[in-house]
Amino acid sequence: MDAKAWIGQAYDAARRDPRWLQIGFLASFLSVGLAARDFPIWHAPVLFAAALGTQLLCVRILKLENVGLLSAVITACGLTLLLRSDVWWIPPLAAVAAIASKFTIRIRGRHFLNPANLGITVAMLATPHAWCSPAQWGEGGLLLLWMFALGCMVAHRAFRSDVSLAFLGSWIVLRAARVLWLGQPGPVLLHQLASGSLVLFAFFMISDPKTTPRGRAARVAFAVTVAAGAFALQHVAYAQNPLLWALLLAAPLTPLFDLIHDKKETLACASPSALQPQPSP
Prior knowledge:
Blueprint: H1 3-16, H2 18-36, H3 43-62, H4 70-82, E1 83-85, H5 90-104, E2 106-107, E3 110-111, H6 115-126, E4 130-132, H7 141-157, H8 161-182, H9 186-193, H10 196-204, H11 216-235, H12 242-250, H13 253-270, H14 272-275
């Protein structure tokens, strides 16, 4: 197969399933991290082995069909990018918890906890040897702009750009209001927003189509709730990694919003105006 045909097949696959695009971009971020950000090389092999092995085992035990490995690869990429540990068994434990949660913690047939988010927070709760370093991506303007542009593309292809942009907008407004309240100069706000981890969270974690509400208005409300919760956790509870904890705490809102959304759709379909035949033109 020549290069042109291979590129064409890759493009068609990305159009059919945006997860291929997401995997490609996350893999590029991971390559940058390994090459220029001193990421531990041993994390990736054990994380990917544990994530893919758990996915295959759960599919086999539950006898599920048409369940591939793409979501497990995305979760493994997210864990490799954000989770850090100085103990070898913690990354695979986080991967097992993350993947297993998709099959075991479900409401109305749908998992609502973001797997990577759950894996990281479980690891940090279980042991002090696990942490997430928000500053590990540095503050390079070109790198952040590249990550932002690729994130917008992935979120748009996954039909979840609204939740990403609503979260970023809310977060920027809250941070700007605090800077103005404290009388701090503008560069302070730019410094607070120049975080690669923030971009990864906005476009590759909170925007997960499987763990965000179905309705657009509900997704916007969910994003605003996460931003407000993270802001409160950081400046009231003085919590580290407030974005991760806020997303975990807000996750149960997704099935609640979906229940309200489904009831509204049912009522709309059952209304007399929807049942009456429309006159022919």
